[in-house]
Design a protein that fits this description.
Elements: E1 7-8, H1 25-29, E2 39-41, E3 43-50, E4 53-60, E5 70-72, E6 81-91, E7 103-109, E8 116-121, H2 131-134, E9 138-143, H3 148-154, E10 160-161, E11 171-178, E12 181-186, E13 194-196, E14 207-212, E15 216-227
Antiparallel strand pairs: 1-15, 2-5, 3-4, 4-15, 5-14, 6-11, 6-15, 7-8, 7-14, 8-9, 9-10, 11-12, 12-13
Length: about 230
């Protein structure tokens, strides 16, 4: 295993290595083998084959449009480091025209599951014939105080950006977090597509979660987490 304590996980087979040294490799490898072991908040999860690989499929459950819709990944604690995952999002069957196939990752999720930071994508915006929609393809939020509409209203264009996306296509995401700074990389880009230098919540350890929003059907695969090295 790398000295970086690389945690490599496919969401279907789930080789997630918890940070706590006392937890066994065998136990960690079984942590996400069953989607029923995800902690679900207003979503339904199932294990499926999607575009040639094992994946976790998430769809929204319930009619409360304001409810947080996440699936918390085991008991992995994360403060700083790198999160990598492949995602694919499309508007769900029957969704209205405002649906964008919202899909992303929440991190530093607190015990209430209501407070977290997240980066997410709007796949149908990536190649829209409307430049303003394209400019809203990638998004940062800090729930619950700083949802997307507040950030857009108060600081337009600062917490969202353009990135080339296709609905339903496997799209690699990489999130780098250090203190109050977070960077989002998409499609194996060498440079970040979105930089947040002032994350809105104080740095704190929390869980990692799969994230969707209203009117979306999303798939997740190949989750990998590399915690930052602790200071000596």
């Amino acid at each position: 295993m790398s000295s970086r304590l690389l945690i490599v996980a496919s969401l279907a087979s789930l080789p997630v290595w918890p940070i706590a040294a006392q937890q066994s490799q065998r136990a960690s490898e079984s942590l996400l083998a069953d989607p029923g072991r995800l902690t679900l908040k207003n979503v339904s999860a199932s294990r499926v084959q999607y575009r040639g690989r094992d994946a976790i499929r998430l769809v929204r459950r319930g009619d409360d449009a304001a409810a947080h819709t996440i699936a918390i990944v085991g008991d992995l604690e994360f403060r700083d480091g790198t999160i990598e995952v492949d995602v694919a999002g499309i508007p769900a069957a029957g969704a209205d025209t405002s649906a964008r196939g919202f899909v992303g990752i929440a991190f530093r999720v607190d015990p209430s599951s209501d407070r977290y930071a997240a980066f997410y994508l709007r796949p149908t915006n990536g190649r829209a014939n409307d430049q303003l929609r394209r400019n809203h393809a990638a998004q940062y939020v800090s729930e619950p105080e700083y949802p997307w509409h507040r950030l857009r209203r108060e600081q337009p264009g600062v917490y969202e950006s353009y990135v080339d996306l296709e609905p339903g296509v496997w799209t690699p995401m990489r999130i780098e977090v250090q203190g109050s700074v977070a960077r989002l990389f998409v499609n194996n880009s060498a440079q970040p597509v979105l930089i947040v230098n002032d994350m809105k919540s104080p740095p704190a350890s929390g869980r990692i979660a799969l994230w969707i929003d209203v009117g979306s059907e999303a798939h997740f695969s190949r989750l990998r987490v590399t915690p930052a090295k602790s200071a000596p």
